[in-house]
Amino acid sequence: MVAAKAVRAASGSQAARDLYDRIGEFLVDQRLDPDPANYAFAYQLLANPDGPLARAVHALTDGGVRLTRRDIESLGCDAPAAGTPTATIEKAQGLVAQTQMQVEGFQDMVTAMRAETKDFGRDLAASAQAMRTSGGDGNEISRITATMLERVRNAEERLESANREANELRTKLEEARDNARKDPLTGLPNRRAFEEAYAAQAAAGAKICMAVCDVDHFKSVNDRFGHVVGDRVLKALGEALSDTCKNHLVARYGGEEFVVLFTGLDLKGAREVLDRARLAVSAKRYRLRETDAPLGEITFSAGLSPAQHGEVFGTVFHRADQLCYAAKNGGRNCVRID
């Protein structure tokens, strides 16, 4: 009995140590401070790896994205809130259901019109036979034709109504498709759009360089001024990158991380453009809108890597991300290349 209790105690202690180690690895991997809030979040996530929080985190971090404090606050420790990937999926499912209903409605309409046409042909044939045998004057054909014309008019009205509904639904679907590829804060393409663009350019055999850019000391901006100001900084940085990297795809990849897909440039040319963007951002003097107080210098660090022929997205992104991490460790506000 004593031995069995000791085994159970040892097993429980080992499980607790394993969970503790996984929490530490998670915080290091996501570059999160080991404060109580982050630790509690990691505990809720890893203690229930199949729960709704774990599914939402997996959707956010799929492809190598790191979580930010804001992501953690928006997710909380419960089910995902509105605006999370789960809510987006539910909205898409609603549009799919509407589309399915409309398709079924069209099918019913076509079936009804076929039945009416069949009835008209049968009645017309019967009337023609009756006239041949009785010498009728054609009034029956006129009556049947008038009835059929009325049915056609009704069918046209129903088709017109269905077309209006189809156009409205098409607009909603196009809007949903655009939103699924757009970051709601900055209006830039999001991670999904960026990965699709990489795949398309790689398939076309284009010359590609990928940059991963991370805002320096962004946590201190949020801590000192709040998330509203932090959001403004992210929007301003997105605009500055887009203005400087014209003709190249700039996207917000997640949190304070932006990515740039340079096409048609070698590593040297891409670095020149990215350095101009870095200098343009650091030269700006950001101020609080409400008080005009200075925010201080805003800079970003970046890693830049060329894609080799046939390389998948994840390989190039990981390489550029590691270079970005090295740039931050090497003093920040700089670009590291292969």
Fold and architecture overview:
This protein has helices spanning 2-29, 36-47, 52-61, 69-75, 85-134, 139-179, 191-203, 218-225, 227-244, 267-283, 313-329; strands at residues 208-215, 249-254, 257-263, 286-287, 294-296, 300-306, 335-337. By secondary structure, it is α+β, with helices and mostly antiparallel strands. The chain has three domains: 2-81, no CATH class; 86-179; 191-337, Alpha-Beta Plaits. Strand 6, helix 11 (313-329) and strand 7 (335-337) form a beta-alpha-beta unit. The longest helix is centred in the N-terminal third of the chain and has 50 residues, at 85-134. The relative contact order is 0.08.
Helices and strands in order:
Blueprint: H1 2-29, H2 36-47, H3 52-61, H4 69-75, H5 85-134, H6 139-179, H7 191-203, E1 208-215, H8 218-225, H9 227-244, E2 249-254, E3 257-263, H10 267-283, E4 286-287, E5 294-296, E6 300-306, H11 313-329, E7 335-337
Parallel strand pairs: 6-7
Antiparallel strand pairs: 1-3, 1-6, 2-3, 4-5
Helix pairs in contact: 1-2, 5-6, 8-9, 9-10
